[in-house]
Design goal:
Shape: globular
Order of helices and strands: EEEHEEEHEEEHEHEHEHEHEHEHEHEH
Helix content: 10-25%
Largest sheet: 7 strands, mixed
Distance between the termini: 40 Å
Number of strands: 17
Length: about 350
């Protein structure tokens, strides 16, 4: 059967090459299929991974590239077989827009670990069409990869769909969500500040571990952490040795793991959610001498992402964001590179994306 050439006009901002500079871009979305949800994008978070992808630092970039995988909007059209959504609903799309739906991971609500997962941008659909993300006016997505956005949750909280689920999932899966536990959070950026908020909401004691002593007041007074360690201070680190049940490590730069492993109690777990571009050195003896675990975690499946969004709505947890207009995006990316944001930029697509 001949493929339909029908499509929907869309508009966004795209990078054309490894400079990563974004500019206005006209393109096409597919027409709304029978299981698809079309929605008007209102807000889209700027994730640190957008920087890597825009500049081809992971060597897999497809240009032109429309980034954005923390996308919140309002449904404008639904396919004939859509069951979960109706026109006017608030919805969100995170890092995934497709998976095989038949492997063991998909069967267990772990679409995020499907080997055939399709990323929201810089990916390719099964028909060879590239995926374009949320720095754009509309999205068309299979309803399976769309979450309900609770009415009482601000739409600017879009970074929950990446930064939120990336820290919620490992706290849950590795059992670091029990009241009374002592949890460490390494790094106080977009991911780290969410890890602190979730860990506190679960009733744990939280220690922030950072190279920057200047973040101490922020961590304790504003985010509610119980204590703060300067990772470059050997005396502080030694004084806290063996005190933590688990650590969420959000740092994407090269850094030593031994000081962190030494902070763990017997059976402690160090969970990596940052993605350094080069391998880290892993000393084995400290693992053997405490039956300790170094593990990883990547975003979450659709069921867990919905669970996380419902959890934050119930507990009034939101990311700290700086909302900026679409035309500010290149400046925002430059500032993000310098860590000059608390803690996530969010693009106001609905009010500021225009073709003029």
């Amino acid at each position: 059967m001949e493929k339909s050439h029908e499509n929907v006009e869309a508009f966004g901002w795209a990078a054309r090459d490894t400079s990563g500079v974004l500019s206005p871009f006209n393109f096409s979305r597919r027409v709304t299929g029978e299981k698809d949800v079309q929605f008007k994008v209102m807000y889209c978070g700027i994730c640190h991974s957008d920087l890597h992808q825009l500049k081809n630092e992971w060597s897999n970039s497809i240009y032109p590239m429309v980034p954005g995988h923390e996308v919140v909007g309002v449904v404008t059209e639904v396919g004939s077989k859509v069951e979960k959504f109706k026109i006017g609903d608030k919805v969100g799309v995170g890092c995934l827009v497709g998976s095989c739906r038949k492997c063991e991971n998909c069967d267990n609500d772990l679409e995020n670990y499907c080997r055939d997962q399709i990323m929201t941008y810089n990916g390719v659909y099964t028909d060879g069409i590239p995926t374009y993300g949320g720095y754009s006016d509309i999205m068309v997505t299979d309803e399976h990869y769309v979450v309900h956005w609770p009415e009482n949750l601000p739409m600017e909280a879009a970074p929950l769909l990446c930064a939120g689920i990336t820290t919620y999932s490992p706290l849950r899966y590795y059992g670091l969500d029990k009241p009374g536990m002592h949890i460490g959070v390494v790094g106080l950026g977009g991911l780290g500040h969410m890890a602190v908020k979730f860990a506190k909401a679960f009733g744990t004691k939280v220690t922030v571990i950072s190279t920057s002593v200047s973040k101490k007041d922020e961590a304790i007074d504003r985010l509610g952490a119980d204590s703060f360690l300067v990772s470059r201070d050997p005396d502080q680190m030694q004084g806290a040795a063996g005190s933590l049940d688990g650590i969420i490590d959000t740092v994407s730069a090269i850094h030593p793991l031994l000081p962190l492993i030494n902070l763990l109690k017997t059976h402690g777990k160090l969970v990596m959610v940052g993605a350094p571009e080069k391998p880290l050195e892993l000393p084995v003896f400290p693992l053997l001498l405490g039956r300790k675990l170094v593990a990883g975690s990547a975003i979450g499946g659709m069921k867990e992402t919905q669970e996380m969004v419902d959890f934050v709505a119930k507990h009034n947890i939101t990311p700290d964001v700086e909302v900026v207009p679409m035309h500010y995006v290149n400046t925002a990316l430059e500032r993000l590179l310098k860590s000059d944001v608390k803690y996530r930029f969010v693009l106001d697509i609905g009010n500021t994306l225009n073709k003029n």
